[in-house]
Design goal:
It contains 12 helices and 21 strands. By secondary structure, the protein is α/β, with parallel strands linked by helices. It has an 8-stranded parallel β-sheet. A 7-stranded mixed β-sheet has the order 3-2-7-18-19-20-21. Strand 9 and strand 10 form a beta hairpin. The chain binds N-(aminocarbonyl)-beta-alanine and zinc ion (2 copies). N-(aminocarbonyl)-beta-alanine is lined by residues 63, 185, 241, 292-293, 320, 322, 342-343. N-(aminocarbonyl)-beta-alanine (URP) is lined by residues 63, 185, 241, 292-293, 320, 322, 342-343.
Length: 465
Amino acid sequence: MKTRIKNGTVVTASDTFTADVLIENSKIAALIAPGHIMSSADIREIDATGKYIIPGGIDAHTHLDMPFGGTNSIDDFESGTVAAAHGGTTTIIDFAIQKKGGTLREALDTWHQKAEGKAAIDYGFHMIATDVPPAQLDEMADIVREGVTSFKLFMAYPGVLLLDDQSIFRAMLRAGEIGALICMHAETGLPIDVLVQRAIAAGHTAPIYHALTRPEVAEATGTERAIALAEMAKVPVYIVHLSAQRALERVMEARDRGLPAYAETCPQYLFLSEDDLRGTPDDEFEGAKYVCTPPLRPAHHHEHLWRGLRNYDLQVVSTDHCPFCMKGQKELGRGDFSKIPNGMPGVETRLHLLWEGVREGKISMNRFVEITATAPAKIFGLYPRKGTIAVGADADLLVWDGEKRHVLSERTLHMRVDYSPFEGKEVVGAPTHVLSRGKVVVENGQYLGKKGDGRFVRRGTFALG
Ligand code: URP
Ligand code: ZN
Ligand code: ZN
């Protein structure tokens, strides 16, 4: 059975043109002139009149079913990927996490078990390395051969995830040898911990202190150090969840010097601010909904991040989807902000929110496609199979209605979490059809896929693009 998406405007990272998209056997088979008559009768047609046909979103940063902060992120591979599909994301790259003292192999096996038979859309993995003695450095090559070609390292969370500079540097050198990419959580974590302890001792326990104890400068120095270590190791580096102007400036300086430094930001850093962490006049603990790391920053950072996206200083917008319910999870930190599980939901709302940037002229439609699909596909070894509209690519496609209005609410979103950080916000733009390898998995808000439709994607090694 073939599918023809008719009468739409195709938008890729580089071009905008009128064409019908023909899909056969889960791949894009042809781009056809509109009106061209085809002889075969066995064609399903999807009418995209007045709409755009764009690549399915790739979210390169999710945490599904992850043990963290004394609990587990509440979306598993079923609920998280169904929610992603509703929002127009057709591939995620989730973080497998090495247990302290455990092996990378165990972590990868565990993540395969979590995802297999559950995911609604395709998925890949990064590996979070929390411990890299020589044996683990050797194991990195096995993991890369299995299509997990990026490793996240942490400069924050002492005693839990933080790696010292020597370990980071060794892992970077190894990554360079095997074609892997290092993704860095770049915050200088040890002094942050001192600030946190002092705040708690002074009785400053409300969620806002999460932001006040993790200043912008800690992220800027972390970013600078990550880039310096990568420069010494002569390897590329990708800074995850960049939130602040001064951290961005460190990336810009590196890129101006020609270094292969890349960075992503997330919608929460473009649309929310430190003020949200103050909660409501009645309940300061409402601010716990917005506790993520790095923290939300004062609103003046937004324009710098949008400019970074427009000017190619930031390459990707992913979500860092790491959802915890208020009830029973965020509540763990009532009376001590440092015990609030860090993370926010977002896998479903990324494209809706970023389309506002297109409507307001902050980014072009082509740049929207690039930062949500094409650039993550290229950086993380999925391109050209995913992330673009081209003959031979997977038919991961959206029919995107750029005028569709709806109001974001926890009641209508599909993530399992019991709140939305964007409750009541009206957004414009939504997919009417979401196709994953040619199969329509969401049509006008109805989920038509099934558990286990998604497949593990082996990613290629890093190549400078
Ligand atoms: O708050 C966050 N970002 N939670 C997820 C873990 C991480 O650092 O990405
Ligand atoms: Zn992180
Ligand atoms: Zn994360």
